[in-house]
């Protein structure tokens, strides 16, 4: 149990610390096996993992993300704009590979047990696979960074993902020089973490001022 808590608290979203060194095949297999062991609504296992190593594909995605970064930056003003300008939001080219995790709403259908009232339960399942992957990568001494600065249609086109399958995340994965102790967004003054006590409610949800 100590090992699990250790991985949970050491895990970081990594952007700047990738070395680009290779990952042993057996290590990658263990990490993907951990992701594939995630719980899923109706045991639908709606995820797939696209391993992206090709330089040209990564370069094209990197360019797209740079444009989306600008799109977001253009919505900011003053201190927010200045703070954001100092924050790196991806390590697409520096990481060893990209792992794109997808969500297929048709997997396990048409009657997915447990999804009739909450369609998002399928998407949650793919996110749990991602979290397993993240923690397993951390336990293996690797780093991972989640990139969401993209348009889903662009990534579908880039990787040949069918229109009915949603790309949920581009994960930058690989060896790192270190895992930061403090999250980048906290260190750079974008947004602090909030205390657990603020997130816990007893018996009823209490709306806080
Ligand atoms: C759904 C999701 C999308 C994210 N997208 C990005 C992203 O596009 N770029 C980035 O640098 N970090 C991204 N992150 C990482 C968060 O910024 C990070 O988890 C948060 O700042 C807390 O830091 P920590 O993960 O190191 O604790 C994303 C995280 C999640 C869960």
Automatic annotation (TrEMBL):
<keyword id="KW-0560">Oxidoreductase</keyword>
<keyword id="KW-0285">Flavoprotein</keyword>
<dbReference type="InterPro" id="IPR050627">
    <property type="entry name" value="Nitroreductase/BluB"/>
</dbReference>
<dbReference type="InterPro" id="IPR000415">
    <property type="entry name" value="Nitroreductase-like"/>
</dbReference>
<dbReference type="Pfam" id="PF00881">
    <property type="entry name" value="Nitroreductase"/>
</dbReference>
<protein>
    <submittedName>
        <fullName>5,6-dimethylbenzimidazole synthase</fullName>
    </submittedName>
</protein>
<feature type="domain" description="Nitroreductase">
    <location>
        <begin position="9"/>
        <end position="174"/>
    </location>
</feature>
<dbReference type="InterPro" id="IPR012825">
    <property type="entry name" value="BluB"/>
</dbReference>
<dbReference type="InterPro" id="IPR029479">
    <property type="entry name" value="Nitroreductase"/>
</dbReference>
<keyword id="KW-0288">FMN</keyword>
């Amino acid at each position: 149990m100590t090992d699990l808590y250790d991985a949970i608290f050491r895990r970081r979203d990594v952007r700047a610390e990738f070395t680009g060194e290779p990952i042993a095949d057996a290590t990658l297999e263990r990490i993907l096996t951990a992701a594939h062991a995630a719980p899923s609504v109706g045991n639908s296992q709606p995820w797939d993992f696209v391993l992206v190593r090709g330089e040209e594909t990564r370069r094209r995605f990197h360019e797209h993300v740079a444009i989306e970064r600008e799109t977001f930056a253009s919505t900011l003003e003053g201190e927010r704009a200045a703070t954001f300008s100092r924050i790196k939001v991806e390590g697409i080219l520096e990481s060893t590979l990209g792992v794109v995790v997808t969500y297929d709403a048709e997997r396990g259908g048409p009657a997915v047990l447990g999804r009739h009232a909450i369609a998002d339960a399928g998407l949650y399942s793919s996110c749990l696979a991602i979290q397993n992957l993240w923690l397993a990568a951390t336990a293996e001494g690797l780093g991972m960074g989640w990139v969401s600065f993209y348009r889903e249609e662009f990534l579908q086109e880039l990787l040949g993902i069918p229109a009915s399958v949603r790309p949920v995340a581009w994960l930058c994965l690989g060896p790192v020089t270190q895992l930061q102790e403090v999250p980048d967004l906290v260190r750079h003054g974008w947004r602090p973490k909030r205390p657990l006590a603020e997130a816990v409610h007893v018996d009823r949800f209490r709306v806080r001022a």
